[in-house]
C-alpha cells in the first residue's frame, strides 16, 4: 500500500511504472512464448531430419541387398540344380554356370560382389573365383548351413569375419585384406522343394563403411550398425568414449521400427536416433551431441534474448527521453510555481520548443507578468486612496478649527463682558 502511495505521489514514478508494465512485461511474455515455440519447432524439425537420415541409410542398405539378392535367382537355374544334384563331375554344366555368372555381372554391374559359390551336402561346389572345388570338411558342420536346413526359407546375411571365416575354412579360400559380408540361403529342388545345397554370395562390406562415412549427422555425430541383439556389426573409427556410449545404448531395448531419444552420457547428453533395415533387421543407430541437434534452436533463443534486451534498452531510452522532454520541464515548472506561490514573482521559466509544456511555461510567465502588473496597480490605487482620504480629512479639519477658534473668542468676550 505504501509503495502504491509512493508511486502515485510522483508523475515520474507513474510514468516509469507504466513503461515497465506496458513495455517490459509484454516483451518478456512474447519472448518466452516465442522462445518456447521456436525451440520446440526447430528442435523437432532437427530431430525429424536426423530421423529421416537414419531411415534413408536403412533404405539404402535395403536397396543394395535387394539388388544383390537378385543373384539368388541363380539357385533356380536348371544347370545349377543339375550340378548340385549330381555327384559326378559335370564340367560342361560347370562351364555354363560360370558363363551365367559373367552374364549376371555384365547385366547388373555387381561391383561389390566378391564371389558367388554353390555347394551341396557332399562338399561338391563351384565358385566364381575357384571354379569347381571339393570341400575337405562336411559342409553340414557349418552352423549357418545347419540353421538353413531347419529353416530353408531363411536368408542369412552374415557380416564380417564371424561366419565368413567359418565359410573360408570350408572352401579354403580367403580374400586378402578384405572384409566380406556373406548372403547365404538354400538351393531347393524345383518340384519337391527339397534342399539340395546352398548358395553363398560374398560382398565387399566397404560399401557399408562408405554409407556410414558419407551419411552425416551434424558435426561430430556418427552412425553405426548393430544387429537385433545389440551387437555392433559396423562402426566408423571411434574413440573409447564412443565405444562406452555404444555399450550404454546396447543396454536400452530398441523395439520400435524407428525412434529417437536422449541419452544422458556424462555431462553432455547425446541424441540417439535409430532405424531398422527391413531386409536384415539391423539397426542403423546415429549418435550426436544433443547440443548440436538443438544448436539452431539455441541460436534462435539467443536472438530472442538479444531482441528482448534491445527492446528493453529502447524502452528505457525512450523513458529517459520522455523524462527529459516531459517530466523534467514539468518538475521545473512545478518548482517555479512553488516559488511564485511564496511571493517570488521573478521565478520565470525558460520555455524550450513549441509543445504544450512550452506553451504552459509561456502562459505561466504571462501570468506572473500580469500578477506583477495587478499588484503594482493595486499598490498605486491604495496609495491614491490614502491620499484622497488624507485630503478629505484635512478638508474636514480646517473648518472645524476655524469654528472652534471663533467659539473661543466668543466665549472669552462674553466672559469679560466686552463687545466684539
Written overview of the protein:
- With 420 residues, the protein is an alpha+beta fold.
- The chain has 11 helices and 11 strands.
- The strands form 2 sheets. A 6-stranded antiparallel beta sheet has the order 3-2-1-6-5-4, with helices on both faces. The protein has a 5-stranded antiparallel beta sheet with strand order 8-7-11-10-9.
- The relative contact order is 0.10.
* Order of strands in the sheet with most strands: 3-2-1-6-5-4
How much is the radius of gyration in Å?
A: 54 Å
Derived from helix and strand composition plus strand pairing, the structural class reads: alpha+beta
- Morphology: rod-shaped
Strands, total number: 11
Percent in helix: 55-70%
SS element count, helices? 11
Q: Give the low-pLDDT segments.
A: 161-177
Average pLDDT for all residues? 79
Largest sheet: 6 strands, antiparallel
Order of helices and strands: HHHHEEEHEHEEHEEHEEEHHH
Proportion of strand residues: 15-25%
N→C terminal distance: 96 Å
Amino acid at each position: 500500500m505504501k509503495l502504491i502511495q509512493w508511486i502515485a505521489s510522483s508523475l515520474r514514478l507513474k510514468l516509469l511504472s507504466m513503461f515497465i508494465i506496458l513495455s517490459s512485461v509484454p516483451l518478456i511474455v512474447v519472448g518466452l512464448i516465442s522462445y518456447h515455440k521456436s525451440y520446440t519447432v526447430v528442435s523437432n524439425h532437427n530431430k525429424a531430419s536426423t530421423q529421416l537420415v537414419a531411415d534413408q541409410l536403412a533404405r539404402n542398405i535395403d536397396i543394395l541387398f535387394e539388388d544383390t539378392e537378385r543373384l539368388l535367382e541363380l539357385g533356380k537355374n536348371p544347370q545349377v540344380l543339375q550340378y548340385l544334384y549330381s555327384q559326378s563331375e559335370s564340367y560342361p554344366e560347370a562351364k555354363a554356370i560360370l558363363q551365367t555368372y559373367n552374364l549376371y555381372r555384365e547385366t547388373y554391374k555387381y561391383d561389390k560382389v566378391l564371389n558367388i559359390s554353390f555347394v551341396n551336402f557332399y562338399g561338391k561346389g563351384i565358385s566364381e573365383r575357384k571354379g569347381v572345388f571339393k570341400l575337405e570338411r562336411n559342409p553340414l558342420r557349418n552352423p549357418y548351413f545347419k540353421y538353413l536346413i531347419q529353416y530353408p526359407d531363411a536368408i542369412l546375411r552374415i557380416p564380417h569375419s564371424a561366419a565368413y571365416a567359418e565359410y573360408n575354412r570350408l572352401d579354403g579360400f580367403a580374400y586378402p585384406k578384405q572384409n566380406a559380408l556373406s548372403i547365404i540361403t538354400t538351393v531347393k529342388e524345383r518340384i519337391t522343394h527339397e534342399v539340395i545345397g546352398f548358395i553363398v554370395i560374398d560382398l565387399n562390406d566397404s560399401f557399408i563403411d562408405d554409407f556410414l562415412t558419407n551419411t552425416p549427422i551434424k558435426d561430430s555425430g556418427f552412425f553405426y550398425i548393430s544387429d537385433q541383439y545389440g551387437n555392433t556389426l559396423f562402426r566408423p573409427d571411434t574413440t573409447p568414449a564412443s565405444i562406452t556410449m555404444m555399450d550404454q545404448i546396447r543396454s536400452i531395448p530398441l523395439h520400435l521400427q524407428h525412434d529417437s531419444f536422449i541419452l544422458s552420457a556424462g555431462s553432455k547428453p547425446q541424441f540417439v536416433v535409430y532405424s531398422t533395415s527391413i531386409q536384415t533387421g539391423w539397426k542403423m543407430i546415429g549418435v550426436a551431441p544433443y547440443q548440436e541437434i538443438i544448436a539452431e534452436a539455441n541460436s534462435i533463443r539467443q536472438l530472442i534474448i538479444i531482441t528482448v534486451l534491445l527492446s528493453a534498452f529502447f524502452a528505457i531510452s525512450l523513458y529517459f527521453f520522455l523524462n527529459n522532454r516531459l517530466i523534467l520541464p514539468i518538475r521545473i515548472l512545478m518548482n517555479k510555481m512553488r516559488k511564485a506561490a511564496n511571493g517570488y514573482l521573478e521565478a520565470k521559466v525558460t520555455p524550450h520548443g513549441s509543445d504544450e509544456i512550452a506553451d504552459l511555461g509561456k502562459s505561466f510567465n504571462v501570468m506572473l507578468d500580469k500578477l506583477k502588473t495587478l499588484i503594482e496597480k493595486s499598490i498605486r490605487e491604495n496609495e491614491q486612496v490614502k491620499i484622497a482620504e488624507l485630503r478629505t480629512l484635512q478638508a474636514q479639519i480646517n473648518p472645524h478649527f476655524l469654528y472652534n477658534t471663533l467659539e473661543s473668542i466668543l466665549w472669552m468676550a462674553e466672559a469679560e463682558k466686552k463687545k466684539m
